[in-house]
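Following the same procedure, the fold was encoded as tokens, giving this record:
***
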Amino acid sequence: MKDASGNFSISRPNGRRAWKAAFAYAAALIFVLGMSLVRNGLVGGGWVLATSNGPILLYIGNAPDSMGIFHYPESFFALEAKYGDRSAVPWTRELLAATMENPWRFFQNLARKTVLFFNAYEIADNANYYLLGRFSPLVRYNPVGWQLIVALGFVGGWLTRHRWREQVILYVYSAIFAASIIVVFVVGRYRLEFLLPMAVWAGAAVTWLGNALSQRAWRRACVSAGATLALIVILDMRWSPALAWNSPPNVSGLRPIRPNDFTLLARAYLEAKQLDKVQEILAEGFAQHPWDQTLAKHLARVLESNDRFDAAANVLRRYLSFMSGDLEMACELARVLSRSGNGGEAKKIVEKVLKIDPSYERARKLQEKLQP
């Protein structure tokens, strides 16, 4: 309802209604966590409230060499090898020791995860938002996404700050939810629930802007619209560290779809026996990520299976122009060249590989096959 000044107001609940609301929240929380506890006990054999992987996940997201996303750092595998088994590693103790040794690195990583959380780039885990866009116009062209809702949400939260007592539950939920993700690691699908309070405040911002325009309060309208636009720019995916990780530092361009996403889509088309699509997706992925070994190898093999040996060799040459020290792929190029009748060039490549590593078994076998 609106007050005399035309602003929206919320009636204050009486004591009984407040206690009923608190009881409803508590009952919903107990029900959800209780279902998780019962499911883990009956199916998994352990009475775990949510997950038993908490220490491992905390280490993945906060290790000194962590990226702040779901990515196993090198130190993770080093500890796994040291203790012989993943379950035997005291992850919490190791993380605490690493943090005490380099606390500045821990806080740097925490700051980066905060940026990753609020930035508009959807960090993929098992499904890529941008890859799904090629199958759904609604996903691809929908302008109402994280960037717009969160920008409007911050503006709406500021505009309604004078009614903070009526929004305590939104403040508490937003802060605790964001912190619970940032303290572990950031994945796009983990943060979706943050949009719930943001959508409420975004609605308040849109309503406030509409009222300002209807009242011809141009200055207020320009200030709120300008603040929203500024936040949209700040939250733009171009500033995401995770997006930058999809490309080497000396290569320009945005690549929201990761190499692995192209590989998984190509595999899906292969299982569906749509072989023309397999080559198309691999070629598209390799054009964006020519330094990725998996894409290069699979695309070269597909081209080779269609007797397009020169095209397959060019794919491998392109990859090796980025990763010249990859002996495996150098041998792969030599093998393809030998099949296409370019034995002389293949022999030179094998000789270069053996100069780098005389004991490389695959190169030695190729050299034997290339002997006249």
